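Example (one chain per record):
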Amino acid sequence: MSNPCGLTAREARRLIGAKRLSPVELLESCITQIGRVNPAVNAVVTECFSRARAEAKRAEQAVVAGETLGPLHGLPIAIKDNQDTESVRTAHGSPHFRDNVPKADSGIVAAIREAGGIVVGKTNIPEMSIGANTVNRLFGATGNPFDPQRTCGGSSGGSAVALACEMVPLATGSDHGGSLRIPASFCGVVGHRSSAGVVPNEKRALAHSVYSVQGPMARTVGDAALLLSVIARRPTRDPMAFPLDPARFARLDEADLGRLKIAVSADLGGLLVSQEIRRTFRERIARFAGLFRECAWADIDLGDAPDVDWKLRSEFFVAQYHEDADGWDADFNPNIRNNYAAALKMPMREVAIAHRRQMALCQSFQSIFDQFDLLICPTVSVSPFPWADLYPQSVDGRAIGTYMEWLGLTAALTVVGHPVTALPCGLDAQGMPFGLQIVGPNFADHAVLSAAQALEAALAADPTLARPSPDLARLAAAPRLGKETGG
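Predicted structure:
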């Protein structure tokens, strides 16, 4: 087997269980790929290869001995750098945490390791994981694998790039206003933002909120669901966690697209979306609409959701950062500094009214699924822009004033809290990855993933719609990108 790092997670796990692929061989293939391609994109910023090699050797011995194997046994996995990893640096993309080495794994990492997953390294994020462009002062920028001078999105940018470049078969992400979905779309991979409480987050700043969701990223829907089956466990430390059977995600249904009624929207009710993305979306819908029983342009009304999101974010930012703000230096992430300053000036009355409006939006949006099985819309309003800009300077001539103004398509869906699978759908007019959001009823994560997997298979048959792959040979010869590495 010449290049095991390119296998899907499910296929690699099947081969390991059948004693046809050694965990050691798979890990070494991934390490080689990281060494070959990572310098050009700067996705993996902290490595733990020595420990991973020891764990892969033990995983190989367990296979030979005929021991019971976990669902992720022997699979190399990259961890987003805002999730604690025992004995491995977790820098949060910040000089303030340059030497931070946690003594224990976060819940999501502990679940992965207990299931047999092997952590190979940490992936880059914007400082403190706030922003949709993966650039920070400590590690520098992570480049898009289709053009390293453009953004890969954020904040789970390093994870998306590592997957697209076949450095690992699985990676973790997290999503506030689109931090998992945006990089998945910009890099041509899959991410799933689950219904709040499906994946526990013991470090959430607010006890009950649809924000700050952790989730799986992969190159295929089936692989994302496999990782979800492990990280959707039921701890007692997150009050949002609710009873469910996580193992059910390991096997998705055989969804019949021909029985589904699909609502489509280019802008979710007037949100900012470039004309270029609108054209690409309409063209893609026209190409695959016939797969469904019905595919209709629907009247969606989330037009004021970004305003609601901005006000609710104020509450989150005060809760998250009030103990740390006095220690920020002048160069600290401006996204956080500006958002926090605005939050302190936000009248409580406006925040309370935003909560009331959120409730109305949740109820009206859920009613869409009385008529349709799923909603499909674009993921991001623009094509990937240069990473030197924290956010696009303008969209179709409209100046962009904050890092959130161009993120309405993902932020609006965060407000209502529904499950969303980000699915690749070919390239846009600029030759960069284009992605869709597959949205379903609240808590219908399994059905959304099942339908997304069926659509993924159908799109793969059309070269225009299939998941794109970067030119890895070109990346291997590209100039080095980034700053500090190792750890």
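Caption: The longest strand covers residues 420-427.
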